């Protein structure tokens, strides 16, 4: 679906970011599109929870792919899937899994560098090889949003210039490996965010969260994409619980 890929890529404008209010199934995707979404993206934690699983690839890959295809069929806008670590460590197996994801009609994915089911992060060179394998498998018309978990794995009070520079090193290496975007969830320091946006030659993705800086201030740093992670699903569950408590007379 090259036309949808190019339309999606063009929505990533530094200073005028694409807003993704993350969905978890076909129904929530329809609602997001009806509300004016230019594209939809899933959040892995939300998808897993909605299906009765925990995050971190506990959701079986066949179920993840089936859900991706249902979301894609439900809307006419481009669809990106949070595919976590791609359900593989080996680059070739990873490429095969990403080709299966592409076959659902999704035009892109999130791909993270933390070790799923383990500790820490994949080494920079190893992660770059994995991204390169994805690119070989899916070709040019697929938006690989390469996520670094540097900031999620550190307390916000420890985020500093050295950490931002480590993220920049990864962002540049992921660029060379074939990534389409660079995702820095957990970072809320606008000064550091601006530093990364200026130094990484990819559209940078910020994750909004309760208490995060305002979208206009985030946009001013040069961010090209703002996603909302698991928080839309959590809001929906809270609204459901509140309504249920009223119905039950609580």
Shape label: globular
Give me the strand/helix succession. Answer: HEHEHHEHEHEHEHEHEH
How many β strands by DSSP?
Answer: 8
Low-confidence stretches: none
Q: Report mean pLDDT, rounded to a whole number.
A: 97
Helix content: 40-55%
Q: What is the distance, rounded to the nearest whole angstrom, between the alpha carbons of the first and last residues?
A: 49 Å
The strands making up the biggest β-sheet line up spatially as 1-8-7-6-5-4-3-2
State the major sheet.
Answer: 8 strands, parallel
Structural class: alpha/beta
Report the total helices.
Answer: 10
Taken as a percent bin, the fraction of beta residues is: 5-15%
Radius of gyration: 17 Å
How are the SSEs ordered, and which strands pair?
Blueprint: H1 2-10, E1 18-20, H2 26-34, E2 40-41, H3 44-50, H4 61-74, E3 79-82, H5 91-103, E4 108-112, H6 124-138, E5 143-147, H7 161-177, E6 181-183, H8 190-199, E7 204-207, H9 215-219, E8 225-227, H10 231-247
Parallel strand pairs: 1-8, 2-3, 3-4, 4-5, 5-6, 6-7, 7-8
Structure characterization notes:
With 250 residues, this protein is α/β, with parallel strands linked by helices. It has 10 helices and 8 strands. Helix 5 packs across helix 6, helix 6 runs parallel beside helix 7 and helix 7 packs parallel to helix 8. It starts with a helix and ends with a helix. The mean pLDDT is 97.
């Amino acid at each position: 679906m090259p036309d949808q890929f190019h339309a999606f890529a063009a929505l990533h404008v530094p200073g005028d970011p694409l807003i993704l209010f993350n969905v978890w199934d076909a129904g929530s995707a329809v609602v997001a599109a009806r509300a004016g979404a230019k594209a939809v993206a899933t959040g892995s934690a939300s998808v897993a929870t909605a299906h009765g699983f925990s995050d971190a690839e506990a959701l079986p890959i066949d179920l993840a792919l089936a859900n991706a295809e249902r979301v894609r069929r439900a809307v006419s806008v481009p669809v990106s899937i949070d595919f976590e670590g791609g359900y593989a460590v080996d680059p070739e197996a990873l490429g095969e899994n990403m080709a299966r994801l592409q076959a659902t009609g999704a035009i892109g994915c999130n791909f993270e560098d933390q070790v799923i089911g383990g500790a820490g992060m994949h080494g920079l060179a190893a992660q770059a090889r994995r991204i390169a394998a994805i690119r070989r498998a899916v070709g040019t018309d697929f938006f690989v949003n390469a996520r670094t978990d540097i900031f999620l794995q550190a307390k916000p009070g420890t985020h500093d210039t050295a950490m931002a520079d480590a993220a920049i090193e990864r962002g540049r290496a992921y660029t060379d490996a074939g990534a389409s975007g660079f995702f820095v969830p957990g970072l809320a320091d606008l000064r550091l965010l601006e530093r990364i946006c200026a130094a990484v030659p990819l559209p940078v993705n910020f994750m909004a969260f309760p208490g995060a800086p305002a979208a206009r201030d985030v946009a001013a740093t040069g961010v090209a994409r703002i996603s909302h992670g698991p928080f839309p699903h959590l809001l929906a569950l809270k609204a459901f619980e509140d309504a249920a408590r009223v119905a039950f007379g609580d």
